[in-house]
Amino acid sequence: MGNTTARLLDLTRLVSRAGRPFTGIDRVEYAYLSRLLTEGTLWGLVRTQLGYLLLDHGGCVALKTLLDCGAFPAPGLLSRLRGRDAQRAGAEVALRRIAAARCLPSGLTRMLRRLPEASCYINVGHSRFDADAMRHLRVALLLHDTIPLDFPQFTREGITQRFRTFLDQSAQAADVVICNSAQTQADLVRHVAAPPPNAVAHLGVDTLTPMVAPSGPWQNAPYFVVLGTVEPRKNHAFLLELWQRDLAQTGAHLLICGARGWGNREVFSRLDAGVDRVHERPDLTDGAIAALMRGSAGLLFPSLAEGYGLPPMEAAALGVPVLANDLAVLREVMNDVPVYAAVSDRALWVRETTRLARDWQGGQGSTVARFSPPTWDKHFKSVLTLI
């Protein structure tokens, strides 16, 4: 695919997340937008409630500017009456004004004929796509994980079947599937009888720049950070149990940095009732989170399943100790940098968090092996030969 003259990046996910803090997959789509703007001709495709928008290179630049500044226009009356997400609707209003073309779903094939021959359609957000309309394009997809199939109990209603459809469609339509890890590649082969050509390219890890850490009752005391959406797969329930039964008396605090997600009513109820020395901070910037992590006794990562696992990599890159569930993908990318403890071994978690808290109190900090995370340059050096 290296001779592709133009690329069409699906930007549906980024537009759908307009005005919200980026999650892991959002960051990847943004990284692709930023890099591909510097690599020849880039077009963008956005699926909206009304149909599709096609952005030329200048439109993609404008979208990146909108995402960077977060200044989206007010949505129209129709969007407000339909109760649509105001930020997403506002982003679509802005993009309709600058779109090179727009169409109803039935007109997508005709609209995409505007692209140069041999263009490559790139989907890195697991966004639903019209395979029939893409038949005259090369198709490259990035697979983040197969968690909806392997752990359906951790997904929202309807997601498992939707993902199964996406994966089957990908297997039939894709010229290449980029896997974010060898673990994900193995999962692809396990779930698809005849997988398309595929390759592993570890995702880049953005270096977080610490800014000003927010203050609170955790100051002058050891504290730990858990980073990620509060959903069942991230296993916050395990940490709340540790703090309620074992760790509060050590004087250590737990800072939950992440928005509340779904399917976690019991955890939300416990948080609403209050857990001693546990604090929610869902609205922090990357710089504030980085500052909190750098001053912490460690990052805790009891997640039950990951396709990649960015928070431990971001923390380790800052020199912060990491205590994590023993996941194959973390060992693949991070080797022995974290301290691994299976979440089935509660006593080990208590012992290790207590040790990290004491190290912090003693002013020693814990010795962290040097970790140089994967870079986007290395990722794109591999990927650009495929797309």
UniProtKB/TrEMBL annotation:
GO molecular function (one): glycosyltransferase activity
Protein's UniProt keywords contain Transferase: yes
Keyword Protein transport applies: no
Keywords in alphabetical order: Transferase
Pfam families tied to this protein: Glyco_trans_1_4 (PF13692)
Name of the protein described by the UniProt record: Glycosyltransferase involved in cell wall biosynthesis
Native species: Salipiger aestuarii
